[in-house]
Write a structure and sequence with these properties.
Layout: H1 3-28, E1 31-37, E2 41-48, E3 53-60, E4 64-66, E5 69-71, H2 74-96, E6 105-110, E7 116-118, H3 137-147, H4 156-165, E8 176-178, H5 180-189, E9 193-195, H6 196-199, E10 205-206, E11 211-212, H7 214-223, H8 233-236, E12 239-241, H9 252-258, E13 274-275, H10 276-283, E14 291-296, E15 300-305, E16 318-321, E17 327-333, H11 338-353, H12 360-370, E18 382-384, E19 401-403, H13 412-422, H14 425-437, E20 444-449, H15 457-466, E21 470-473, H16 479-493, H17 500-508, E22 514-517, H18 521-536, H19 538-547
Parallel strand pairs: 1-6, 6-13, 9-12, 14-20, 20-21
Antiparallel strand pairs: 1-2, 2-3, 4-5, 7-8, 10-11, 14-15, 15-17, 16-17, 18-19, 21-22
Organism: Halobacillus seohaensis
InterPro entries: ATPase_NBD, FGGY_C, FGGY_Carb_Kinase, FGGY_N
Protein name: Xylulokinase
Length: about 550
């Protein structure tokens, strides 16, 4: 037989056998489902017991600024969940010829923090208030002073206490407060549960008990005791679970919500719901001490697993945990990619006005690579991509700005470089506190998010900003939906007492390709020059906030 023909036949047989194998896994329920509610997309990923993605589904959405709060409508939360699941389910039907009825395990992930308050009938008392709201500074500052522990504006307890300070009418009817991940988990399982990582963005966690800090809970209850609310704090918070523990099962009602065609059977076990920070750590295998990851999207955050406690309270540093309860220093900036996306949208309009067509991915690749031709410091240009307030730099609102002097080297390469630099400007300020003031050791940073889809560019920029090696894994594009699917698989498939760290190292990431990039000396020096310009120029951003009135604002 001709060698080439024989080789083709072998490949076809292998492909057919693999198809049959995956089909049988779907039928047997040897799968895990990860559901993540991101800031611009709801994504669902179905993986097999070897952690390979079988199918995924998506639903695009966007937050809205309504009555002074950034929010997502409840109706879209549910319809988006159903649409993303249906998208994934139809791909399974198309590719494997079967309808999903069984799933081995399910996990829910979502944007951390924020405020979802429900009454005893399960009704939302106020629209969902997301992490993006910078409206709780008074509450956050007072609680930070009370606890002697940094309480950022995004945290659920800050939202609750700000509502108390504002004497909002819904407070006496509060039966349960949670995050978006905790809400979806409750909707599908009926359990008021939360993973320790997500819980650590609601209220401080005691590392020794891996539960809410009891002394701080008592302090909060004493703080509001005279208001005579019919609840105590611990009674309205979700129950904390660790990675590997089961946190509920899919109810009949939940199955009908998730799969409104009612093919999916109830009884599927759930792992604890987690925040996007925790699932990002899992997706990049950065849950061991001295490791970290940076997640790039509408917001940007870096998570560094700590070896020791920080010496003092830093308002720029959140102290949260990994999904297994280890302490983490988290630097979170509210603004990252929105302004870059807006500028590239403008360039795409220009293409179209010239009668040309360009794919979005191609446009991003060309423009990002242009930044590699720029002056190390961006040619003296300055930009702030502040679509919303930024807690690290103390600004309660945002005004996207681009500024240059007559002597700036204004060209396309520098323009792109400065917008990539500024996406990490606020993050850099927080990271310098960890590395330069607290002497936190970092062996490696793993990057994930859309920026890293363009090879080299994202890694070079982040390596310059943080002055540490930056790696990207072949799995990094999977993101938090894949990460929470891995946590669901860990709950179901771990060996007795097998740690999450060992499960990831030995089973999930064994053999996964990693591309590592070390900081370039000139890039690091250029970013240091830029960040000083960035700090000095914050008065310009403040003036824009004070004097440039938003449309529709009184």
């Amino acid at each position: 037989m001709n060698y080439k023909i024989e080789n083709v036949i072998r490949k076809e047989i292998k492909l057919k056998n693999n198809l049959v194998n995956i089909k049988q896994k779907i039928i047997n329920g040897e799968t895990s489902l990860g559901i993540e509610f991101g800031s611009t997309r709801i994504k669902i990923v179905l993986i097999d017991n070897c952690f390979a993605t079988i199918a995924s589904g998506n639903y695009e959405w966007e937050n809205r600024l309504e009555n002074g709060f950034w929010t997502y409508h409840l109706e879209e939360i549910i319809t988006g969940l159903q649409a993303a699941y249906s998208d994934m389910k139809q791909k399974v039907v198309h590719n494997y010829g079967i309808t999903i009825q069984k799933i081995g395990s399910i996990g829910i992930s979502a944007m951390m923090h924020g405020y979802m308050a429900l009454d005893n009938k399960g009704e939302l008392l106020v629209p969902f208030r997301t992490w993006r709201n910078a409206t709780t500074s008074a509450a956050a500052n007072k609680l930070t002073d009370l606890f002697r522990f940094n309480i950022p504006e995004r945290w659920s307890i800050a939202h609750l206490y700000q509502a108390i300070l504002a004497k909002e009418n819904h407070l006496p009817r509060v039966d349960f407060i949670t995050t978006l991940a905790g809400f979806i988990h409750w909707l599908l399982s009926g359990n008021k549960a939360i993973g320790v990582g997500d819980a650590s963005g609601m209220f401080p966690i005691d590392e020794s008990t891996q539960d809410y800090n009891e002394s701080m809970v008592k302090q909060f209850d004493e703080l509001i005791a005279t208001l005579d609310y019919p609840w105590k704090l611990k009674g309205i918070l979700p129950t904390v679970f660790l990675a590997g523990e089961q946190a509920g099962e899919l109810t009949e009602a939940g199955a009908k919500i998730l799969d409104n065609s009612e093919d999916l059977q109830p009884g599927i076990p759930f792992c604890p719901p987690e925040g996007d920070a925790g699932t990002g750590m899992v997706a990049t295998n950065s849950v061991r001490k001295r490791t970290g990851n940076v997640s790039v999207g509408t917001s940007v955050f870096a998570m560094i697993v700590l070896e020791k406690e920080l010496s003092i309270v830093h308002p720029e540093i959140d102290l949260v945990t990994t999904p297994s309860g280890s302490p983490v220093g988290m630097v979170h900036a509210n603004n990252c990619s929105s302004d870059i996306n807006a500028w590239l949208g403008l360039f795409q309009e220009f293409y179209e006005a010239m009668g040309q067509n360009v794919e979005t991915d191609e446009l991003f690749t060309v423009m990002f690579n242009k930044a590699l031709e720029a002056d190390p410091d961006g040619g003296g240009l300055l930009s702030y991509g502040y679509f919303s307030g930024e807690n690290i730099t103390g600004l309660e609102e945002g005004r996207p700005l681009f500024v240059r002097s007559p002597k700036s080297n204004f060209n396309l390469a520098n323009f792109m470089r400065i917008h990539l630099f500024t996406a990490f400007g606020a993050l850099k300020i927080g990271m310098d506190i960890l590395t330069k003031e607290e002497n936190v050791a970092i062996d490696n940073i793993l990057g994930h998010g859309g920026l890293f889809k363009t090879p080299v560019v994202g890694q070079k920029i982040v390596a310059a900003a943080m002055n540490v090696p930056v790696s990207v894994m072949a799995t990094a594009g999977e993101g938090g939906a894949w990460g929470i699917a891995i946590l669901a698989s860990y709950m179901r498939n771990k060996n007795h007492k097998e740690s999450l760290e060992d499960f990831l190292d030995k089973k999930v990431f064994s053999g996964v390709k990693v591309q590592e990039m070390y900081p370039d000396r000139l890039d690091v020096k250029g970013f240091e020059t830029f960040i000083e310009r960035y700090k000095e120029g914050l008065v310009i951003e403040r003036a824009a906030i004070d004097n440039l009135v938003e449309n529709g604002r009184d």
